[in-house]
Design goal:
eight-stranded parallel β-sheet, binds beta-L-fucopyranose, Jelly Rolls, single chain, Immunoglobulin-like, 699 residues, TIM Barrel, globular, alpha+beta, seven-stranded antiparallel β-sheet, 11 helices, 4 domains
Length: 699
């Protein structure tokens, strides 16, 4: 009885205060996220797995005619994938259930092109099911990728294929428990097997799939699933396959324009300030250059420096990070990839070890209704549902954090309370040093999360000035850290003659080795350009002498230098500048073809000596916006430049969105001359460009 009385009096006294504050809650502004989108955004970091027939055929895109019998992992262990992902703090795994070649990792009732016709588990396996179970065990969410493009199906391009596609969608969304994200890749149309037709088929993606209807089906079947990619999706591609969002990054998109084909994908990096829908960005990137596993990339796992930058430029720029781990032929995440992931995670953990603002004195020059419910200190209470808010129409305001004593900081993390919309258009950061305010950052959007890396300063106070906002300010979290100094790896370059230059940040001393062993401080100190024209693996580290810390090891692998190489002829283009394709510098390129020189076009190079080679690499143009990329090629060798032998031909798959070094291998042969033919280009034009051509030498 007494308790009831107490409760009633409590309600009576407190209710008016709460209702007043509730009534004063800032009004939502602009397009808003759904709860599903908020939950998804809070996942922040999750994995992608590309593992299919391509893993066994060593391709990035299958043509569609590969036999399911090739799918034969020797040691497949999805629990290993889940463990690696869990240990990295990622929250889920998106599995490529069907890539462009049409092979299905689950025994689909609608096709024979699946695991059921592979030797794996005698055709009794179901990889999607196994992974769903492993995700459950490790408390990870499962997502699935179903390629709309199918280079195998005879009916691709006809209405029947859309029915097939939807049937498969239903299978995936009903048989494997909750699917947190459904991934529809944009690559669609082109040449393929198509049931033996071996032809080029183009479709209008937006019309062909009737996405409105397809989405209805998805939501009816699986309302918890967030749909990514093409159609009226709930999350967008970030516009590159490098995992980098724009510094300015709105979670909004003019999706109507996009669906009308009026938005170029490069706009996805920043979204649209005036977008009419909440369509946040997801940054996808592979831990290696390719999406599928290729043994030649075992030593090309992205360096730690790059991985750390990716983290800060995706999660730190209001995007989620979808990191691909290409499972190898055994059916495991490769140890090199796991090791790099561990390095990344320990770097990030160290960066965010001790939060520095929660013990400061916090004040703001405007607090909504002067109410504690919206106080400045809410940005530092560890509660994601409380926030600092300003009065209506107050779109500029400052929040100040005063330290007890001067404190070193170099990371600042900010979060808007996105349930009420994304508002901030511009802000800057000031620090107080020896009594004077100094501006250390000038930025634009915040969104769900923004992390700034600034030069380390020792400050007695920190001030964030919101200088422009779409509506009043609503910020839920502000933190600061003092991350350990990250020593960046040195850059290694070797030119045509074999002259090696190594550069480091801030002139940090560099130690290197030429014997493949990891360099240490006892290794050779780099004192300036040196010549090394034989085949070599150069490894180098930079040392921060103040803190006595080292960078990660930078590795550069070279064949015999190109000092004896000569351009013999080219079917078009300026011959003199063609030397740029053998100058050892991937940032200089040369173009040929063009309006009056339709493809195919070719170039012949004299290697100066007869070499044993078993492959070549083509580095496409790296610098610029509209890269002139070769999509199909032929590669010949000759000893006398009279008789030529075709060593390799085919496509540079996915080069448009991932213009990485293309590595093609073939059976060892002697070659003095090489002839590289550009058969077709990405896009409409016929100008093609080469940054560098290399050969792979062997004994
Ligand atoms: C691309 C695809 O074409 C690649 O093969 C890969 O699946 C990547 C994630 O998306 O557009």
């Amino acid at each position: 009885m007494k308790n009831i009385f107490l409760l009633l009096s409590f309600l009576f006294i407190t209710a008016p205060i709460y209702s007043q504050e509730l009534a004063n809650v800032p009004k939502p502004f602009g397009p808003l996220p759904t709860q599903k989108q908020i939950d998804w955004q809070e996942m922040e970091f999750y994995a992608f797995v590309h593992f299919s027939l391509n893993t066994f055929t060593n391709k990035e895109w299958g043509y569609g005619d590969e036999s399911p019998a090739l799918f034969n992992p020797t040691n497949l262990d999805v629990r290993q994938w889940a463990r690696v992902v869990k240990e990295a703090g990622m929250k889920g795994i998106i599995l490529v259930a069907k890539h462009h070649d049409g092979f299905c990792l689950w025994p689909s009732a609608y096709t024979e092109r699946s695991v059921k016709n592979s030797p794996w588990k005698n055709g009794k396996g179901d990889l999607v099911k196994e992974l769903a179970a492993a995700c459950k065990e490790y408390n990870l969410k499962l997502g699935l990728y179903l390629s709309p493009w199918d280079r195998n199906r005879a009916d691709y391009g006809k209405p029947e294929y859309v029915t097939y596609f939807r049937n498969q969608l239903k299978e995936l969304l009903t048989n494997y428990g909750d699917v947190f994200e459904m991934w529809f890749d944009g690559a669609n149309g082109g040449d393929g097997y198509y049931g033996g037709a071996n032809e080029t088929r183009k479709i209008n993606t937006l019309e062909y799939y009737n996405w409105d209807e397809t989405y209805e089906l998805i939501y009816k079947t699986a309302p918890k699933t967030l749909v990514w990619g093409v159609g009226p999706s709930e999350a967008r591609w970030i516009g590159n396959e490098e995992g980098r969002a724009g510094k300015t990054n709105w979670a909004l998109l003019r999706q109507k324009d996009e669906l009308a084909g009026k938005v170029h994908y490069t706009e996805f990096m920043s979204g649209h300030e005036d977008g009419e829908k909440w369509v946040p960005g997801e940054a996808d990137v592979s831990i290696r250059p390719g999406w599928f596993y290729h043994a030649v990339e075992d030593d090309k796992v992205r360096p730690l420096d790059e991985m750390v930058d990716i983290y800060y430029e995706s999660i730190g720029r209001n995007a989620t990070l979808l990191l691909n781990l290409p499972v190898d032929k055994r059916g495991l995440v490769h140890e090199n990839d796991e090791a790099r992931l561990k390095e990344l995670v320990s770097t990030i953990k160290a960066d965010f070890k001790t939060e520095l603002l929660s013990k400061t004195k916090i004040s703001a020059d405007n607090v909504r209704g002067n109410s504690t419910a919206f106080a400045a200190k809410n940005t530092s209470d560890g509660n994601k549902n409380t926030y600092w808010a300003t009065d209506d129409n107050v779109k500029t305001a400052s929040i100040v954090f005063e330290f007890d004593k001067p404190t070193a900081i170099n990371r600042i993390l900010l979060q808007e309370y996105i349930a009420l919309g994304q508002r901030v258009k511009a802000f800057n950061v000031e620090v107080k040093i020896d009594g004077n305010w100094k501006t250390v950052a000038n930025e634009t959007t915040i969104g769900y999360k923004r992390i700034l890396r600034i030069e380390r300063v020792t400050a007695s106070a920190l001030k964030i000035n919101i200088t422009d906002s779409k509506a009043n300010i609503v910020i839920s979290n502000i933190q600061a850290y003092n991350a350990p100094t990250f020593v960046r790896m040195p850059e290694i370059q070797r030119d045509k003659n074999g002259d090696v230059t190594i550069k480091s940040e801030d002139g940090n001393p560099v130690y290197y080795s030429l014997d493949g062993k990891n360099p240490m401080k006892k290794s050779t100190l780099y004192k300036g350009v040196f010549r090394y024209n034989k085949a070599v693996t150069i490894k180098a580290i930079a040392i921060n002498t103040v803190e006595n810390t080292s960078s990660a090891v930078k590795m550069a692998k070279y064949g015999v230098s190109k000092e004896n190489w000569k351009i013999v002829s080219a079917s078009s283009g300026d011959l003199k500048s063609a030397n740029r394709i053998i100058d050892g510098n991937p940032n200089s390129d040369w173009s040929f073809g063009g309006e009056s020189n339709k493809l195919p076009q070719e170039i012949i190079i004299d290697l100066g000596n007869t070499l044993n080679i078993n492959g070549f690499t083509y580095i496409p143009q790296q610098v610029g916006n509209n890269l002139n990329l070769i999509s199909n090629y032929e590669f010949y060798t000759s000893i006398d430049s009279v008789t030529w032998k075709l060593q390799s031909e085919g496509e540079f798959s996915n080069i448009k969105h991932n213009p990485i070094e293309q590595i093609k291998t073939f059976k060892k042969d002697k070659a003095r001359y090489i002839r590289f033919v550009a058969k077709s280009a990405v896009g409409k034009g016929s100008t093609v460009s080469i940054a560098e051509i290399n050969v792979i030498e062997t004994q």
